[in-house]
Each structure stands twice: as C-alpha cells, then as structure tokens.
Design brief:
There is one protein chain. This protein is α/β, with parallel strands linked by helices. The chain has a single domain (16-368), classed as TIM Barrel (Alpha-Beta Barrel). Helices cover 38% and strands 14% of the residues. The protein has helices spanning 16-26, 32-53, 70-75, 85-88, 123-130, 163-183, 195-198, 202-210, 215-230, 258-267, 312-322, 350-368; strands spanning 57-58, 76-77, 90-94, 101-103, 116-117, 136-142, 188-192, 237-242, 250-251, 272-276, 296-302, 331-335. The protein has a seven-stranded parallel sheet. Strands 4-3-9 form a three-stranded antiparallel sheet, with no helix packed on it. Strands 2-5 form a two-stranded antiparallel sheet. It is globular.
Length: 369
Amino acid sequence: MITAHTDVVGSLLRPAELLRAREAREAGRMTAAAFKKIEDEAVDEAVRLQEAAGLEIVSDGEMRRLSFQSQMTEAVEGFGGWDLDAFLWGEWHGVEGAETWRTERPADLGVTGKLTRRRHLSSEEFVYLRGRTGRIPKVTLPSPGLFANFWSADISRHAYPTLDGFLADVVRILKEEVEELARLGASYIQIDAPHYPLLLDPATRAFYESRGWTLGEWLERGIEFDNAVIDGVPGVTFGFHLCRGNQNNRWLVEGGYEAIAEPIFRGIRAERLLLEYDDARSGSFAPLAQVGDDRMVVLGLVSTKRPALEEPELLARRIDEAARYIDKERLALSTQCGFSTSIIGNAPSLEAEKAKLRLVAEVARRVWG
C-alpha cells in the first residue's frame, strides 16, 4: 500500500493555450499532431509544478480530458450524443457569495447502444506521465455508478433494459482498463465517486433512485460494482475519492459522512480514502472511526474553490482533530478536490494553485516529518 502523507486529487488548471487549442481542434482548425504537442506540453508543466511543490504523488493534471469522467464517453461507443452539460447538470451553489448556477440535465441524454470500447481510456495518460516523473504517478478513473446518469428507461431500453445490465458493462470496461494500466506498471489508481455524497441531498437522491435503485442499493450494489473494478489487481494501491461537487467555484450538496460512512468506509476495498473536508459542509471527523485499520485517509483540507491560502497552523490543528478518530500515521493531506474538474476550472489563479500545493507539502513535512 502507498503510504505517502501528501496526495493530489487529480485535475489542475488548464493553461489558456491548451483551452484555445482544444477549441481550434474541435473546429477543425488544428491537426491532431499539433494539438497533441500542446497537450503534452501542458502535462509536462503540470508535472513540473507538482514536483516543485514537493508532492510525493503526481497526476497529469487531467489535461487530456474534457471532464474528469469524460474519457469513458470519449473512448467507448454507445453513449449516444453528449456534451459537457452531461457532466455538469444540477444546482450549483457558489462559495463566498457567488450566485447559484443551475444547469439542466439534457433531455435526450441516454445510452443508445451496446457499449463497445474503441480504445483504452487512460493508457495514453499513464504511459506519458510514467515517462515524465520519478515520483508516484497517479491515474484516475470514474466509479461505475456515475454513469447511471446516462441510463434512461425510455432512451436506453432497447440496448439495456435494466440499469443493472448497463452498469455491468461499464464495470467490465473499467476492469479491463485497470488490468491494462496494471500491465503498464501503474501502482496507484484512484476511483472518483462523487455520486455517493450526492445521495445526501434529497433532490439528487430522488434522481438516482429514479434510475431504479434505492438508497440502500446504491450503498450496497454500487460498492459491489466498485469493488469488482478494484479486486484482483496485485501491486496496485487504489484510492477512492468522495466529494460534494466541484465546478466553477461551486458545490452541489452539503452534509456530513455519517449516513454513508459505514457501508463505504468499511465496504470499499480501496486502501486510500480521499475525503473532502475543506469547510463546514463536510461535517465532523467522527465518521472516520468507521475506517478499517488497513486503510489510510487523505484529508482534503485545502480548498480548490477559494483563492485565499489556508493557515498552516489551522491545517495542523485539524489533522490533530482527525487523529482523535484514526491513527495520525494513517492520515495524509491534500486539496479537497481537483482545481479543474472539467475544462471550466475554479477561481484560484495558477499562482494560487502552486501556493496551495506547496502548502500541502509543507504542512505534511511539519506534521509527519
């Protein structure tokens, strides 16, 4: 198991040049070769940034993705028509007085055919990252249950009559991806699963239950599907990331982990739990008592939504508070989520991003040596 006391959730701010290049490529004004060169340079800079900050684990910043979960829909046929709104719908609440931002779920969203993988989801990301860093390279994959959003009883019926059958195919594809990443030498794979904390909100829970599973089934069968992706891959440490929505300085839901802690913290067979704890919306540390002795908890205490830099002394005190429920040696520190869950990104500037990542490393050295 990877026992590093620093971590990075995944995404970093996309450089303006990369965003312009993506637009040009989509409009047919740039060749694939020219676009890949700019993409590669963005990853190179992301690696340099994380290494300079002093992090033990680095990602490619998710520079090659539209959204943290879009590599699935980009690499697999059968999802039908989709765009960025497929990943963004909901009522987003702003921090520090920002206005609420609401995006509707596209009415025609729904899987339309049997899922067929055209290419691997993240092997390019990992192989390139592996060749650019001597630190621990991390690659992230979406939890199968996230794609319940793409199943519709009306639109998807001819391809997948049930949600269970659809998600079983999603699990198959993700399991194949994990096996390929392990073959290529990946030692740390993170599963992103924000839909579990979203179940805390009555409106969002009603949507997920309308797919056909009750809350109890999501916490039982959903975790079974996650474990099916994780199980049987020796030599790989798995992380499991839970957050409450992260987009454009906004969040989706609030509430402590109490209602979901036992089935997830005890049931998921990931070795590192990456938990959002950057403000009061996340509740207390008490649910950490449910975490098994064979797992680490990465405390997401540093906000990617607020530009202001957290006080190191406050972060150290909060780590001590969490250590009342779990051995301090089984704790680590990170930001609460990525800086750019999609290409939209959050408010902190590139300089603020760098400062926050340095802060993570500095506080970790202070607390754990």
